[in-house]
């Protein structure tokens, strides 16, 4: 599964399976909670 950060270029976001929040919005933590911990 590919997850792109919210501030990633559009080409990266288009090829990702999911897009999370930006780094300023704790996007990595959001992705971990949503996809790795399967909440």
Descriptive report:
By secondary structure, the chain is an alpha+beta fold. The protein has helices at residues 10-15, 27-36, and strands at 3-4, 18-19. The chain has a two-stranded parallel sheet with strand order 1-2. β1 (3-4), α1 and β2 form a beta-alpha-beta unit. The mean pLDDT is 93. Pfam families: Hydrolase_3. InterPro entries: HAD-like_sf, HAD_sf.
Features:
alpha+beta, 39 residues, 2 strands
The stretches of 5 or more residues where confidence is low (pLDDT under 50) are none
Query: How many helices does DSSP assign?
Result: 2
Provide the spatial order of strands within the biggest beta sheet.
1-2
- Strand percentage lies at 5-15%
Give me the secondary-structure category. Answer: alpha+beta
- Please outline the major beta sheet: 2 strands, parallel
Question: What is the arithmetic mean of pLDDT?
Answer: 93
In angstroms, what is the radius of gyration? Answer: 10 Å
Percent range of helical residues: 40-55%
SSE pattern, N- to C-terminal: EHEH
Span between N and C termini?
16 Å
List how many beta strands DSSP finds. Answer: 2
Gist of the model:
InterPro entries: HAD-like_sf, HAD_sf. By secondary structure, this protein is an alpha+beta fold. It contains 2 helices and 2 strands; from the N terminus they run βαβα.
């Amino acid at each position: 599964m590919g997850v792109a950060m919210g501030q990633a270029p559009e080409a990266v976001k288009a090829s990702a399976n999911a897009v999370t929040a930006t780094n300023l919005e704790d996007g990595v933590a959001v992705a971990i909670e949503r996809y790795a911990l399967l909440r």
